[in-house]
Design a protein that fits this description.
By secondary structure, this protein is mainly beta. It has 2 helices and 8 strands, in the order ββββββββαα. Strands 6-7-2-1-8 form a 5-stranded mixed beta sheet, with no helix packed on it.
């Protein structure tokens, strides 16, 4: 009886990415039919353990435009869909998919996140530093910015204040009030 290797998949509107994780695969046989029938078989390891995958894809595919690549650690199959549209699932059968079938999150793109050919989407900004534009959103304080870089008014201190006996941070200690220093001086 054959085992099932891990099969990862992802899609785009026009293609499917099917990756079969099987190191040192030998005697690899791949078969793809226009109706969406996908068959894979191979052996692996010193014991020549047989592996097999036989699935019915959700829809029809273009066999002539599909390509396979057999590597040392996995077999990658780029399957061209017959129709340029997103599939609701990989398999024709509904219900829970087999346990060996997993989503390839490294290649996955949601339908609404697909890169579009909008004007400017191919622009390369290179080493442009947007942080110097002060376009908002960075918590820029106009008063503090006009007076210079005032680190003493910075509320994002790296040190934690010790709570007083009442459980609240001791405001006098953090402002230097108990030490007789200037307000804003660090204790």
């Amino acid at each position: 009886m054959s085992r099932h290797p891990t099969v990862k998949w992802a899609q785009r509107p026009d293609t499917l990415f099917i990756t079969i994780d099987l190191p040192d695969a030998q005697d690899v046989k791949l078969k793809l039919e226009p109706e969406g029938k996908f068959f894979f078989s191979a052996t692996s390891g010193a014991e020549k353990i047989p592996y097999e995958v036989d699935i019915d894809l959700y829809d029809k595919v273009d066999v002539n435009e599909s390509k396979a690549s057999i590597g040392l650690r996995n077999i990658c199959y780029l399957v061209k869909k017959a129709e340029n549209r997103w599939w609701r699932r990989l398999l024709k059968q509904e219900g829970k998919p087999p346990v060996f079938l997993k989503v390839d999150w490294d290649k996955w793109v949601d339908e609404d996140e697909e890169p579009e050919n909008k004007p400017g989407s191919d622009m390369d900004f290179g080493d442009f530093d947007f942080s110097n534009l002060n376009m908002g959103g960075g918590g820029f304080d106009a008063d503090a910015g006009a007076a210079g870089n005032d680190d003493e008014n910075d509320d994002d201190s790296d040190t934690e204040e010790e709570p007083s006996a009442g459980g609240e941070p001791d405001a006098k200690a953090s402002l230097g009030g108990e030490t007789g220093g200037e307000p804003g001086a660090r204790a």
